Amino acid sequence: MYTETMTWPQGKRCAALITVNLDAEYFWLQLDPAAKEMPKTLSMGQYGMLRGVDRLLDVLARYQIKATFFCPGKVAEEYPDKLRQIAAAGHEIGCHGYEHENLSLFSAQEQRRRLARAVAAIEAVSGRPCRGFRAPEGDLTLETLAIAKELGMVYSSDLFDDDRPYYLPLAQPGEEILEIPMQWANFDFPYLAFNYRPAFPFGQGRVSNYTNMLSNWKDEFLGHYNHGLCYVMQLDPQTIGNPGRTAVLEEFFDYATAMEGVWFATGSELHAYCEEALKQ
Predict the structure, then answer these.
(1) Domain-by-domain residue ranges, the chain?
(2) Lowest-confidence pick of 40-54, 190-204, 254-268
(3) Would the pLDDT of 201 be above 80?
C-alpha cells in the first residue's frame, strides 16, 4: 500500500504543499490574554494582515503557485476583505481553530461549537467549502480530528510522523482522515518570530539568520525531491511578509520551481489524488 517513494500524478517527482497560517494577532492573544492591552505586541500580527498578506499573494502569483491558507474563524470575521482577496486569487482556505486556541483544553462539545463557528465564518467569506484543518500551535486530540471530519473537513495537516500523506484512523471503526504531515524546519515562525512580553520564544535568542533558514529549506526540499516525498512549507504573513523576508522566499521559490517534476498542490488537490492512489 505504502512505499518509501510515492507515485505522483503525471510522473511528477515529488509533491509540494505551500501553506499559510493566518494567525494575525491571535497567536499572541492565545499566548497571553493580557496581550489584549499590548498594542505593540498585537501590531506584529496586524502587520501580517495589513501588509504581509499582499506581499505574499504577489509572490505566489509571480510563481503561479496556489497555496492553502489556514485561518482562525475570528480572523475571517475581522478581516473579511483579506479572505475574499485570498479566495479570489484561487487559493484554498482551511480552518485553523476559532481564536487560535489550544483545542485540547476544551470538552468535545466546546470544540465542536468553536470549530463549527470557525467553519461557518470561513465559508461565509470565501464562498467555498472548508475542506482542510490545521489545529493552532497548541495541542489536539484524535477527538478534535473526528470533530473536524464531522464538520466536513477531509484532511488534516497537523502531525510530524511521516513525509507522505496517509490515512489516520479515528475513534470510530472505519472512520479516518487524510493526514498531510509537516516539519518544524519548514516553518518560518520558529526562525523569525520574536517578542519580549509575552516572551516568544520563552528562552529568547532569535531572530535566526536568514541565509541559514533558506539553506535549511533548500536542503529539506532537495531531500524530499530526491526521495519522491511530500514537502510541506508553513508560512505566516507576520513573519515572512516584510520586504527582506519575502525576498528570501522568492529565492526559495527560484530554487524549487527550477527543479523538473515538482507538483505544487493544494491540500484539497492532494486529498483528491490520495483518494485514488492510496485506496486501491
Answers:
(1) 9-277
(2) 190-204
(3) no
